[in-house]
Write a structure and sequence with these properties.
Number of domains: 1
Order of helices and strands: EEEHEHHEEEEEEEEHEEH
Helix content: 10-25%
Structural class: alpha/beta
Radius of gyration: 16 Å
Largest sheet: 6 strands, mixed
CATH topology: Metallo-beta-lactamase, Chain A
Strand order of the largest sheet: 1-2-3-4-5-6
Mean pLDDT: 96
Strand content: 15-25%
Number of helices: 5
Distance between the termini: 39 Å
CATH superfamily: Ribonuclease Z/Hydroxyacylglutathione hydrolase-like
Shape: globular
CATH class: Alpha Beta
Amino acid sequence: MEVISVTEDADVFTCNAYLVLGDRTVLVDAGTMDGVEAVVAEHTDHLDAVVLTHQHSDHVGELAAVVEEFDPDVYAYADHPLRTHEIEDGDEVAMGDETFEVVYTPGHAADHVSLVSGRSLFSGDVVVYNDGAFDDGSFGRTDLPGQSRERLITSLQTLLDRLPETVESMYAGHGDVFENETGGDTVRDVVARALERAERRKPKYPED
């Protein structure tokens, strides 16, 4: 399975939107980068589906443009005018050459889901590797209306419980992709460290 970040050259604030190539070509989140559909088209002329981790504006800003260009199925937990398939906790979604379990992980957003296979984790914003607050395991912010640190902590615990030992790669909504390090940190270590930091219940950023 090949995964390409199609928003890595963005000069606006956006999430990481990932194009997953393989038996089933899928875009995880759409981002806010103008022209993202053209970047997707550089790699494929067919897009089977878009899967949304959640519907914050930086993840869905260019969804309409992607749908207009490719007419894919759209999978989302919460209602959206362009949604064609509702996903719930425990559902399975085929992406690339792998099958992913949907894990409901709210806290940063009420509709947040993560996508877990035997080898890969698409974590959205519930856990990221580095984001300016922490460099080796961080968690989504929870200080805005509708967000909950307590619910996010529970979500991280759930994600860790359902994360196979075999997972090698983490594709987060922000920051860098993380790959297991030989003799060093694993994806599970990163999630566990994010959980421990969230459990301190201190502001994520000192000025918050």
